[in-house]
Amino acid sequence: MKKLITLMFILFPLSLFSQLMPRDSSDLVDLYYKTNGKNWKNNSGWFSSDLNSWYGITFYEGEKTVVIGLDLKENQLGGKFPVFSFPLIQKINLSLNELTGAVPRISSNQLRYLDLSKNGNEKNTGLTGSLQDFYAPKLEYLNLSFNEFSGEIPNLALDNIKYLNLSNNDFSGNGPKLLVPELIELDLSNNSLTGSIPSVLSGNIKKMDLSRNQFSRVIDIDVPSIEEINLIRNKLSFEELEKLPKVEKLRYRDQKHIYNLFKISTKNHDIYFLDSKSKNNNYFWQIEFEGIENDKSYLIRPSNSFVSCLVKNELFPDLTLNSKEVDLAKSSKKLNVLPTSKKGRISIEFEDFPVGKLTIRLFDLDRKEQISIINLNESGRIMNLNYPGLLEGKYLLHVRSENQDYFGEFKID
């Protein structure tokens, strides 16, 4: 501390020292020496009595002179990120430098512009910290891109923010809720965000870049102003993509979603079906790597064949999604299925009590068809189901609850 005070008296002309707010004086000295000011690309005017000559600094001359602007973009600042307060500062731009380490808490009621993007050096790839360390209610522009900020993005309520760029960092967790009425552009690309895409409440937003994350769900987006959405390289299924609003530019290629190709094996048949629900989906089946004609979401084949399926969608022609086999025989429980004395009615009995909603599929093994899919909100250990018009033959009934699969065979004589 004594060293800093000594430097202040040495560096600052007496006339200037008496004008500046004391804290601003110490912050300027700290900034200069801790970021290797002697080797900056441009350090002209620093510690001159002429306030207009200080490169990258904007002063406001009132009763006391205060720093209101700091713009040292691409100026070869190095070392650990400096600690400063500048209580009345409105703009900070330290982008494209070689600053490293954790960013200390930045708190300002006047800050409107903050750009710390693209810092780091050959050994350290950027600045670290979390969004919890920032408090600036009047912020209009925030760019922290190409650093190593991490943690969850908290729900944000910023009345004035127009540009928000947190791309190319290590943020994780679910997409945040953003109450940002003035936001025009949002960039969260190249992070590790999961779950639902962000909920954005803005009447002005034009562009959202959410690409290269791990989003798997789409929530309702009610933003009529939106013109461009980039969702490349997430984990969205066609069913989720169909929830998006119509926009002028929608980029959706290279989704990492993989449909489950469920398999149930009986004595003579293998039954395959996809967890696909869109009516716009098209299916391309292969048996032993040879394509076959089958446009349904299921396939019934003799046992011991290698089966795969690709899924396309009429609304998203530039995307093809893969499937992976899930053998239900390894995890399913037995289902007792018995035709009752009443024609068209069958009784089913579970080994345990199924939890939650049920999806029930009925397959005709003789005619190799899926008869129906029904969804029930109620369940019980013993249930009766109506299937009028069943022909003679062998059938398989599959039931999926929230946490378990069941299947059983039965015969109609």
Describe this structure in words.
It is a single chain. Strand 1 and strand 2 (65-71) form a beta hairpin. It contains four helices and 36 strands. 32% of the residues are buried. The chain has a ten-stranded mixed beta sheet, with no helix packed on it. It has a seven-stranded mixed beta sheet with strand order 33-32-35-36-30-31-34, with no helix packed on it. It has 413 residues and is mainly beta.
Architecture blueprint of SSEs:
Blueprint: H1 2-11, H2 14-19, H3 22-34, E1 57-61, E2 65-71, E3 78-80, E4 91-93, E5 98-102, E6 106-107, E7 113-115, E8 127-128, E9 134-135, E10 141-143, E11 150-152, E12 156-157, E13 163-165, E14 170-174, E15 177-179, E16 185-187, E17 192-196, E18 199-201, E19 207-209, E20 214-217, E21 228-230, H4 238-241, E22 249-251, E23 258-265, E24 269-274, E25 281-287, E26 290-291, E27 298-302, E28 307-313, E29 322-327, E30 333-339, E31 345-350, E32 358-364, E33 369-376, E34 382-386, E35 393-400, E36 405-412
Parallel strand pairs: 2-4, 3-5, 4-7, 5-8, 6-9, 7-10, 10-13, 11-14, 12-15, 13-16, 14-17, 15-18, 16-19, 17-20, 19-21, 21-22, 23-29, 30-36
Antiparallel strand pairs: 1-2, 23-24, 24-27, 25-26, 25-28, 30-31, 31-34, 32-33, 32-35, 35-36
Helix pairs in contact: 1-3
Mean pLDDT: 90
Q: Give the overall form.
A: elongated
Structural class: mainly beta
Work out the radius of gyration. 31 Å
Number of helices: 4
Number of strands: 36
Low-confidence region ranges: 1-6
The major sheet is characterized as: 10 strands, mixed
